[in-house]
Design a protein that fits this description.
The complex is a heterodimer of chains A (345) and B (284). By secondary structure, chain A is of the alpha/beta class. Chain A has two domains: 226 residues, no CATH class; 84 residues, no CATH class. Chain A has 14 helices and four strands. A four-stranded mixed β-sheet of chain A has the order 2-1-3-4, sandwiched between helices. In chain B, a hairpin with a 2-residue loop joins β11 and β12. Chain B starts with a strand and ends in a 5-residue tail after the last helix. The chains are: A alpha/beta (345), B alpha/beta (284). At the A-B interface, α1 and α9 of A face α2 of B. Bound molecules: adenosine-5'-triphosphate and magnesium ion. The site of adenosine-5'-triphosphate has 12 residues of chain B, from α1. Magnesium ion binds next to α1 of chain B.
């Protein structure tokens, strides 16, 4: 334990004296300027929901007529809806049949729809019917129904989880490699090898240093944008898991390289793939099956949900994050031992 | 105590051995010198002995335990001074020693005292990036002593140091020997080797060509020689001739007859001459 603390203090000092780490501070300042002065909080363009009302007397159509739901378009038949989906004009449409007491909904959607989203629509439909029948509604579901659109998140606020994920969390991917390359170039890693301290403490102490720095930046960023009204007790563990995950990944991959100019291509590649989940949170209907397996997904998704709760249970995301951490640590431990702690192995 | 048996090492995978069938023993409390020109395989041997480099072929035994089976606690007992200055340049000299000390399970020396010993107290709080080569060399040496090691591996501890500082470092090595430390000393400085070592091994192109006490080596192989300075085509040239070598004698006669000789000195056998004689090459 004292060895870990000793090394942690050393890594913190190295971090504070590393110009790359201060780069992150610079990007945060740029972000704050963008957030407060450049990007407006205008609400993004709404997605249209297509409805086919096959009930007798078109009860749905008439019930919604008086309300302010101009992103709902009624079309006359299922074939037309299916064509719209095939033409990729929309991702999802709803067919209503039956009566108000015996409603029957069919959700028609394209290939890339996550089951979760289908369930959400289902739940919202149920609430809508209850509402129409005069039963009071659980506000959560009705919020979710028009696809986050009853209380939409302003554009600039939406940037916060994105920035937290791609700047604060993923920076450890870059930083862990920078650290390793520096130790390789200075040879200080050789000095570490002739001590009885070993791989685990090497990895964990660096990770803790990255977590410390990441959390400080994240708190700074949130306090200067959203303020105090955030569930920090949920957010901090998610940030820690995310930072650790990308730290482990960065260290694992960096064992194969020796300088930043070779590694930068890896960073670009990983960054591009990791960006895909942004589309999923901006456009929930874009959710190909592989999206949840991109390591940035559970972090981004959870951070967004914690900052702007919509009532989704994050259990699965947390389990995914923990699972990914275990796998990434195991890989990292193996590679650091094999490739960094010994030569000619 | 330490026994190296038929050690080979091939970096290339093409059977080009940097270390080629090297065997020797080091007794407890002994200072064992490992001498040879650049590229002879000295550092490679040391790196295999300390477990930094994977053992490919042969064996390294500590009290009959193989280095390949050594637990991490092994590192509590050894100190290593590297030929390259592998320090954290963003940390100060003091910080380098302090955090390094924190990695051991055994009582460690006071970093400030060690810095003082190698004459770096005044620079303790300077970042290592601002140190001179010699200062880095000294702090790497100081670092190797931090865990009060029982075995010391010193790879060129005095290279690049001014004579006064080099002599101070040699005094520190002697002190460690008096404390009972076993020392593996790699160097191309024959003078230091003669001064410090109980036994030396001459390494050339990966092979040991001779191994004995410095005194015995000089007696056995070193003969009287003369150093001649004469005017060559490109200024003054200096050559060493061994007097019992027929070829050398012929050469010497030729020079005396044909060239403009400036000085002739006879000299006692030195380790350096012994080495030149055994390998046909100089030490640098
Ligand atoms: N990492 C490496 N990869 C490939 N070849 C190497 C490596 N390290 C050393 N060598 C080669 O192995 C041989 C022995 O090198 P080594 O460093 O052991 O020599 P040395 O006796 O310590 O020399 P010096 O006095 O210059 O330090 C040299 O030919 C060198 O080029
Ligand atoms: Mg060497």
């Amino acid at each position: 334990m004292s060895k870990l603390f000793n090394l942690y203090v050393q890594d913190m000092k190295l971090l504070l004296r590393n110009s790359f780490a201060w780069l992150m501070m610079g990007t945060i300042i740029i972000f704050l300027i963008l957030y407060h002065f450049v990007i407006t909080d205008s609400i993004e363009h709404e997605i249209t929901m297509y409805f086919v009302d096959n009930s007798k007397g078109h009860i749905m159509e008439s019930a919604l007529e008086g309300r302010n739901v101009d992103n709902v378009v009624f079309i006359s038949n299922i074939e037309e809806l299916e064509q719209l989906i095939l033409d990729k004009e929309t991702q999802v449409g709803i067919v209503f049949e039956g009566t108000i007491h015996e409603p029957r909904f069919t959700i028609v959607h394209g290939e890339n729809m996550r089951e979760e989203n289908v369930n959400l629509i289902r739940a919202s439909l149920r609430n809508m019917i209850l509402n129409m029948a005069g039963v009071s509604v659980d506000a959560q579901y009705s919020t979710k129904f028009l696809g986050d659109r009853v209380e939409p998140i302003p554009q600039n606020k939406m940037l916060i989880p994105i920035f937290l994920t791609y700047e604060v969390v993923m920076f450890s991917f870059f930083l862990s490699a920078v650290f390793m390359f520096e130790e390789k170039a200075e040879g200080s890693i050789k000095a570490y090898r002739i001590t009885p301290t070993g791989t685990a403490i090497y990895i964990v102490s660096k990770t803790l240093a990255f977590i410390t720095k990441g959390i400080v930046y994240a708190l700074l960023l949130i306090l200067l944008t959203i303020g105090f009204e955030v569930n920090f007790l949920a957010l901090i563990p998610i940030l820690m898991l995310g930072i650790a995950l990308f730290g482990f990944m960065g260290m694992s991959i960096a064992t194969f390289f020796s300088n930043i100019s070779e590694y930068i291509f890896v960073v670009m590649g990983v960054l591009i793939i990791s960006m895909l989940p942004i589309f999923t949170i901006l456009i929930p209907s874009f959710s190909p099956f592989y999206i949840e397996w991109i390591p940035s997904f559970p972090a981004l998704y959870s951070i967004k949900e914690i900052l702007f709760p919509t009532g989704i249970d994050l259990g699965r995301q947390v389990i995914t994050l923990v699972g990914m951490n275990i796998i990434a640590y195991a890989l990292c431990h193996f590679l650091v031992t094999k490739k960094l702690m010994k030569e000619g192995a | 105590m330490i026994s190296v048996e038929n050690l080979y090492h091939d970096y290339t995978g093409k059977e080009q051995y940097a270390v080629n069938d090297v065997s020797f023993n080091i007794k407890k409390g002994e200072v064992f010198g490992f001498l040879g020109p650049s590229g002879a395989g000295k550092s490679t041997t040391q790196n295999i002995m300390t477990g930094l480099l994977k053992l490919q072929k042969g064996e390294v035994l500590y009290e009959s335990n193989s280095i390949t089976k050594m637990k991490s606690e092994f590192y509590n007992n050894i100190g290593v001074s590297f030929e390259f200055h592998n320090l954290y340049t963003k940390l100060t000299g003091y910080e380098n020693l302090k955090y390094f000390a924190g990695l051991f399970d055994v009582p460690t020396a006071d970093p400030m005292e060690l810095l003082d010993m190698v004459g770096l107290r005044a620079d303790a709080n300077k970042r290592v990036a601002n140190y001179s080569k010699g200062m880095m060399q000294r702090i790497v040496f100081a670092r190797s002593l931090i865990n009060n090691p029982k075995i010391l591996y010193l790879d060129e501890p005095t290279s690049g140091l001014d004579p006064t500082t080099a002599s101070q470092i040699r005094q520190l090595i002697k002190r460690k020997k008096e404390e009972g430390c076993t020392i593996f000393l790699t160097t191309h400085n024959m003078f230091a080797a003669d001064d410090l070592c109980d036994r030396v091994a001459f390494l050339n192109e990966g092979k040991i060509v001779a191994m004995d006490t410095p005194r015995n080596l000089k007696m056995k192989h070193g003969e009287k020689s003369v150093v001649v300075e004469f005017a060559g085509e490109k200024g003054i040239k200096k050559s060493v001739f061994f007097l019992d070598n027929e070829e050398d004698k012929k050469q010497l006669n030729k020079i005396i007859l044909n060239k403009e000789v400036q000085t002739i000195h006879s000299q006692e056998a030195t380790l350096e001459q012994t080495f030149i004689k055994l390998t046909g090459r100089g030490l640098i």
